[in-house]
Structure formats: structure tokens, C-alpha cells
Write a structure and sequence with these properties.
Layout: E1 3-9, H1 16-24, H2 27-30, E2 35-39, H3 49-54, E3 57-61, H4 70-80, E4 84-88, H5 95-99, E5 106-116, H6 120-126, H7 128-136, E6 140-146, H8 148-156, H9 159-162, E7 167-172, E8 177-179, E9 195-196, H10 202-211, E10 220-228, E11 237-248, E12 251-256, E13 258-260, E14 272-284, E15 289-301, E16 309-310
Parallel strand pairs: 1-4, 1-5, 2-3, 2-4, 5-6, 6-7, 9-10, 11-16, 13-15
Antiparallel strand pairs: 7-8, 10-11, 10-14, 11-12, 11-13, 14-15
Helix pairs in contact: 6-7
Length: about 325
Amino acid sequence: MAIPVYVFDGFLESGKTSFIASILQDPGFTVDEHSLVIQCEQGENEFEPEMLKKTHTDIEFVEDEDEFDAGLLYSFVKRHHPDRVILEMNGMWDLDAALANLPAVMEVYQIITTINAETFELYSMNMGQRMIQHISSADMIVFNRATEATRELIRNRNIRSMNVRASIYFENDDGTSEDYGEGMPPPYDLDADVIEIQDPWFGIFYLHAQENPEEYDGKMVRFKGYIYRGSGIAKDEFVPGRMGMVCCANDTRFVGFIAKANGFELPRERSWQMITARIQIEERKQYQGVGPVLYVTEMSPADPPEDEVVMFNY
């Protein structure tokens, strides 16, 4: 059985070490099991030796990205025989390349990205692609030292659009915590007989339905979508959606939902269609779990929207 690996990613001084220390001291996480921390950078905070001893934790260091390979990591496992590995990544390293070097005895269980809200804008401007990788790869994202101003800025930067599946939280400078989407209802009426998604709202609809599929189960929805066939879907299925701007004009991607023609003729690929459909929540590999599947009740050709690329701002 492979050893579970918890990956902590983020730039220097984003709070990785403090977060790891708090998790190691959580009895529900450690119990009496043996942990190994592999630290790939050292910030201003260090692990206290007494805490490591109490939590049955060993620590190893990797300073050079070129040294981070399967052989070295396997030697750590043989030396310490851990029940779990906590990998504190260097935020300047290529995360995907690093994780590809894990030996077969290690398996990534969760990727957690920590971000200093105070320096988020600065890093986004100067290290944009690396910041996007930190965010898009994560299962959980935590913004530390957040203020009212930085929370507003971060929400306005379309963070959710970079990763629709991750849990995102603010750890605020006043000691409180909150969910990224807290207090941000969608702009359309979820209780309407047919939920009308205006053209600029598609990005919000896409994110909200992915995050809260149970709220859409059995609902009727109408929206304008661009048609792709997609891969790995049934012969009577297609994918209506839109191109979405993730963070800048040069970074757009197609986002959409699996739809069943439900007796209708399949629409022409790369055409615009006005679609009315009933949503059912089903487990699909494309959603990496459950997600909305649209059962078409009406469909007709439509003119392109005024702006074909959508944003994801709440």
C-alpha cells in the first residue's frame, strides 16, 4: 500500500510551515502514527524540536530542485518508515515536474496551497504562471492574513475560475476564518420555474453549479451555449459551454456541462444554441465525482452573444 503524501505548496512566507505545525498537533490527524516532513525551503518559521518529538515526526531537507528525485525520496522512506509524508514544497519549483518524481511507494493524497493575501497581487503580477499553477493544482487553498480589502481584491481576480473543485478559505488578520464564496449568491433566481442564465452570467452559473450541484438537481435551466462534442462521452451527448477568461486575455479555456440530446438531433459542433434542459446530478469521470448533466427539453440555433468570452466574477 502506497504511503499517503500531503503536499503543501505556495511561495515563501505564505504560511506553509505554520499550517503544517498546526496539523501535526491536531490529535485527529496524527493519533500515534509516524509522520515524515520533507522540507524543500526554509522560511522565517521553523518546526520546534519538542513539537516534532511529541507528534512522532521526522524531518528531512531537500535544498536543490535537481536533487528532488525518486531515489532520494525513497531513501527517506527507507530510513524513517513513515505512515504519512508531508511535503513542504519550494514555491519557485515546478510542482507538476516535482510530483512526477515521486517514487511508486508514495501517492499524493491532497495538495494544499497557502497564499499570503498581503503579497498576492505582487506575486500575481511578477510570477503569474507559477501562481496559477499553485492555485489550479490545489485541493484546498488558504489565503492567510486577509483583510477586507484583500478579500475583495482576491474575489475580483476570478480565483474560483482557476480551480472549480478546490475548497478556498480566508484566514483573516482578525483571527476569523471564512469561505471564499460566503455571502456571494448567484445573480439569477434559483427558485424560478426555469432559471434564466443571461449571457454574462454563464461563468458564475458554471462555477456555482460545480460547487453546489445539489442545489441544481431537478432544476430547469435556459442558457446560450457554444457546442463541443468533447471526449469520453456517449454518442447522444455533447458539451455546451463558453470560453472563460481565467486571469487574463491570454489565458482562456472552454468550460461547459455534459448534455444529453434526449431525443433531439445532435447540434452542429462549434455552433451556438439556445438550450433549455433539466439538470440531473450524476457521477461522471469528467467531473471527478458528481456534477450536473443536462437533459435537453428544447434547443434551437442562436446568434453569438455580444461578448463570447465570459468572466467568473461573483
